[in-house]
Amino acid sequence: MILIAQSVPSATLVPCIAALPAGWELERTAIRRDRATFWFDSDVAGKHAAEATLRPTGECDVSDATSVPTDVAGAERYERPNRLLPRLETTRTYVVDGGCVTYPLSFDTPATSALLFEADQILSFQDRQSLVEEVDHQTGLELCGADTDCAGGD
User: Fold this and answer.
1) Is residue 104 part of a domain?
2) For the ranges 25-39, 92-106, 131-145, which has the lowest average pLDDT?
3) Which domain holds residue 47?
């Protein structure tokens, strides 16, 4: 979480894994400056069935997506379905202060409501201020970034 938070220090919300439903696994994580990505495989939906990527503001294009009611406080949500049948391919984008998160879903099997519900359970968000406080409490170190006041700056 610390590395993900520091990859885009301007983001006030940081994506995280809420739960991995049975049959889902974290396949890979890649973190670098200005981007953090994690991929998920499913024994039913297939390899690389879901992927979450945190980027700086302006790096997520929502011009051809539809604004939908959000399920994340402090974030605007957009949906861009590429294909619904027989295989689901859609990209969700969450725009937060200082960043954005894309969450493409691509299922190898026909999408069911149960499979979509499972994918919905994976991604969650943690507010940066809570992370700052937890890092300070656990380690005594400063996690810098948006909405923080630390000696290290952004």
Assistant:
1) yes
2) 131-145
3) 2-139
Count how many residues are written for the chain: 154
In the chain, how many domains are there? Answer: 1
User: CA distances (Å), 128 to each of 86, 112, 120, 133, in order?
Assistant: 38, 34, 21, 9
| pLDDT, tens digit, 9 for 90 and up, residues 12-46 | 999 999 999 999 999 999 999 999 999 999 999 99
Tell me the C-alpha distance between 105 and 116, whole Å: 9
Yes or no: say if 7 and 101 are a contact pair by the CB < 8 Å rule: no
Q: What is the pLDDT of residue 154?
A: 46
pTM of the complete model: 0.90
Q: b vs e for 51-69, b when ≥16 Cβ sit within 10 Å of the residue's Cβ?
A: bbbbbbeeebebeebeeee
Q: Output b/e per residue, 19-48; b: 16+ Cβ within 10 A.
A: eebeebeeeeeebeeeebbbbbbbebbeee
- Does residue 148 lie in a domain region? no
List the CATH number of the domain containing 22.
3.40.1000
